[in-house]
Amino acid sequence: MSYNALIRPLKNGNEYNSLFPTPKEKKVRLGKGDTHTSIELIIKWALENNHEVKLVATKLQKGSLSETCFAIHDFLYNHFQYEADGEAQLLRSPAYAWKHRYEGIDCKSYSVIASCILLQLGVAHYIRKIKQPAYMPESFTHVYVIVPVNQDSGSLKNGYYTIDGTLKSTREPSYIDKKDFFMDKLEHFGLKGLRSTPESPDNPYNESDPSWLENIAGELSFDGVKDYFNTPISCWGGSAFSGDRANAEQEKIGLYFENVLTKINEAVRAQNMALLSSSFNQFEGILFTALKAYAAKQSEGWNKCTADSIIRMQKTLEFYQKIVHVGLVAWLQKYFEMSIISTKVYRNNVDFERIDPAFFFTYTDPNVTYTSNVQSFKLKSGVSQIPAFEFTPYVEQASANPSSFNAETFLQGLSTVLVSFAGGGTGGTGAIDENGQNIYDQNNQTKTTSNAGSFLLGALAFGGLAIWGFSKLEDKGSKTAKKPVK
Prior knowledge:
Blueprint: E1 27-29, H1 37-49, H2 54-60, H3 65-79, E2 89-92, H4 94-99, H5 107-121, E3 125-131, E4 142-148, E5 160-163, E6 177-183, H6 214-217, H7 243-270, H8 273-298, H9 304-335, E7 336-347, E8 369-379, E9 385-387, H10 393-399, H11 407-412, E10 417-420, E11 456-462, E12 465-470
Transmembrane segments: 452-470
Protein name: Transglutaminase-like superfamily protein
Keywords: Membrane, Transmembrane, Transmembrane helix
């Protein structure tokens, strides 16, 4: 197929004009990154701009998943012209793309729009980037969206639908390698990024550079379990640590660990082993240092009000020690080979109280210390997908009696697919779903995915248009297209 074959006559689409908002002329810096960043920006752009297709999504929703996927593909192919990007890489929001649809968009923007629509409809899906056998096979050169037939688990084993707006056909392009990035249903996604703690060597995230993985944070909230640790606190007279202060600090501790656990999920999803190592060490180091610190503080002798507040902090931290930490270690050991490579010493000095600040009243002189093992992580052979680490109903149930917590029972309850390594191959099997529609592709064989790709140099967003320069991810619409989509 030639590049010209990807150009298509467009429908006028007048019925959609009133359904898109006017793009805002606003400029923001999106940041810098590596080979994964182009896909992360596609995901980030979809999460931040899916509200623009709320009305369009309703119009495209049909009676079945397959019909909805076909309708989305038809909308993309027949209403947005294809145009390969030049050296300046472009990423358009749906409203911006609609306003400039006759000028053309590339596979990345098609994927953004498709993902936005699916998010609004509550349909789980994946952003897939591929290496193609007939064009620059050493690099990832194309990206599109796939929708699993099994919406409950997100597994691709039962087949999936392909939405690739560059192609008239709904059949998946041939590929020799791929990498999938899971997009859960909208209710699990926050639109403004990870609620981050102040920037520090252990926590490189800050509000000016939010994570795109806030969806996991909602499933790690402490709110559902905190009441199990709320012992009555009665204060007479003054107190160094009042009941009201204890309530506030308990919330901060929950949010702090929610953020760290979200980083761990993010690291697993991105296969960033360095971030996984540092985040897991941070979780263990801060948790066990805080436990030792409050134990030391309690021994100093305080009035009943302050002593009760310290006990509440201890019970809160014991939830993370006896349930969350046990479950986290079991989850990591199930999917990764772990090896101790060094140690790191934590201490409850004055700065320790200022983390977030989440650990009020932990300082003692002399300091207590905790030596945490720094672990390396390597994905185990044969792992096809990893579920997100989240607080299941079983976690809340076990919170009333932490000694009853069983790690294996917990692992069996994890069902939200975080990242999938299954797939690979050259197309579908011609399967038919319950509505008589063709399932685009299924039963692909597992392939090993490498980390080839682009180097993001810098990005700006102008009124719904993200522009950046990067060297590789030369996405294109088909395996033989002559003009790559930069």
